Amino acid sequence: MRSPGLLLLLLIGSIASQEGGDCCQARNFGHGSVVCVCNATYCDSPGAVKLPPVGQFLSFLSSKAGSRLEKRQGQVQENSTGAALRLSIVPYQHYQKIKGFGGAMTDAAAINILSLSAGAQDQLLRQYFAPEGIEYNMVRVPMASCDFSTHLYTYTDTPGDYNLTSFTLEKEDTQMKIPLLQKAQALSPRPLSLFASAWSAPAWMKTNDALTGKGSLKGQPGGPEYKTWAQYYIRFLEEYGKYNLSFWAVTTGNEPTAGEMTNYSFQALGFTPKTQRDWVAKDIGPALHRAFPETRIIMLDDNRLLLPYWAKAVLSDIHAARYIHGIGVHWYFDKFAPADITLSTTHHLYPEYFLIGTEACAGWTPLDRGVTLGSWERAEDYAHDIMEDLNNYVVGWTDWNLALNPEGGPNWVKNFVDSTIIVDQKQDVFYKQPTFYSMAHYSKFLWEGSQRVGVSYSQRSSLESSAFIRPDQSVVLVILNRSEEDIPFEVWDPAVGFLSASAPAHSILTFLWATV
């Protein structure tokens, strides 16, 4: 039996859907801001955004006070508004081009999405992938189990099976992740860029004979275990290909330092920079180039504090460097790894290799663990880290689990964290966290191929910003205000004129305007 409160929510949702369905059905759990509640019949949505004519601009506001992608239209002015703070677009300062934004289809994410009714599942996937949603174009896919699984498994647990004759996908793939990825692709107006990451090789290939803890591949690069591990990647891509799912990239393995330097409680496979370098040069690089020449290799897939050291160790070898396309970074410990020293330095040393964020989540620290419904502080952490990464040559940013339950799982080792969407199976609803809207302010507007350009300030300000010119020559400007004060400002684009605006305290703003 449904509760009276839920019946009221369904009624409100039905009415709102008839009126366009743009409003957040807010619920406050007492953690600083609100979540937006969605069900099988209603969910707030930004809708398909149409570029305004030259001379007008759109702004989208999300704030601690409760705004969620609140849309407004304004007029570009010929003359300065006289604001003390001016942000000037510098279109001739060209930086990196954007690849995209997304999240991970883990076992846990799939379990939570599939726990909803068919209508609510569709709503959730639309929120992420459809034109009326926030238009994710990237999805990270774990190869076999990770901590966000309900049990330990790989695709070939038969000891000594160097020919991988027992290799088979599990029900987590064929009955859960693959059907949802197919639905996501059907909802997206453009091909999704999938990339795969492995947490551990089968135990029989490893020095510690276990999926967890400190252990690496037996032998040396070029040897049987390293060759077989490379072929494991190929078989994974082949099996997913049978379901019409192709992969833009694979990573060299999730957090190689976890299995090399620490006794991790969940799945890990250790690599040093040297063994990763030689495995790419001798094994996975040639194997992937032969079987899937269009699939890219992303090295590292670990915290950015390892840069530029790790990049130098791998990319200084021409045999490995020829197979690598990008460098994946996680956001953990970013506060101890300044972006200019890690990301920008690496870019300037190796400009031909893209930098990309491959994992991030809130609620991972021991003092701030698990789900916090309505946390604006976490939304600001997301928005700040994305902007800092983008302003230091990163081409995209991938969130962790697409959906979790209110506990922050399931997770077989109880390594609970937060997610941008939290599923309440009992009520057949899901909550869009403030972090969902942090992602939206970038993913919805920064099309693949958008190029970052310069922004200059007329005076010092606590506002953070990043500007881009999209392939159609329209401009996107994202503003983050983490201060306690409303900050008025104007934007000057030499191509069109002046935009007058104000950033409320604790808010994220995205501006969009045409130049031609």
Automatic annotation (TrEMBL):
Main localization, broad class: membrane
InterPro entries: GH, GH30_C, Glyco_hydro_30, Glyco_hydro_30_TIM-barrel
Location of this chain's protein in the cell: Lysosome membrane
Cleaved signal peptide residues: 1-17
Single GO term (MF): beta-glucosidase activity
Pfam families in UniProt: Glyco_hydro_30 (PF02055), Glyco_hydro_30C (PF17189)
One GO-annotated biological process of the protein: regulation of TOR signaling
Assigned keywords, A-Z: Glycosidase, Hydrolase, Lipid metabolism, Signal, Sphingolipid metabolism
Residues covered by the Glycosyl hydrolase family 30 TIM-barrel domain: 98-446
Membrane topology: Peripheral membrane protein
Domain Glycosyl hydrolase family 30 beta sandwich: 449-511
Protein EC: 3.2.1.45
GO CC terms in record: lysosomal membrane
Catalysis: reaction(s): beta-D-glucosyl-N-(9Z-octadecenoyl)-sphing-4E-enine + cholesterol = N-(9Z-octadecenoyl)-sphing-4-enine + cholesteryl 3-beta-D-glucoside; beta-D-xylosyl-(1<->1')-N-(9Z-octadecenoyl)-sphing-4-enine + cholesterol = cholesteryl 3-beta-D-xyloside + N-(9Z-octadecenoyl)-sphing-4-enine; beta-D-glucosyl-N-octanoylsphing-4E-enine + cholesterol = N-octanoylsphing-4-enine + cholesteryl 3-beta-D-glucoside; cholesteryl 3-beta-D-glucoside + H2O = cholesterol + D-glucose
Pathway the protein contributes to: Steroid metabolism; cholesterol metabolism; Lipid metabolism; Sphingolipid metabolism
Family that this chain belongs to: Belongs to the glycosyl hydrolase 30 family.
Protein name as it appears in the record: Glucosylceramidase
Lineage of origin: Eukaryota, Metazoa, Chordata, Craniata, Vertebrata
Name of the gene encoding the protein in the UniProt record: GBA
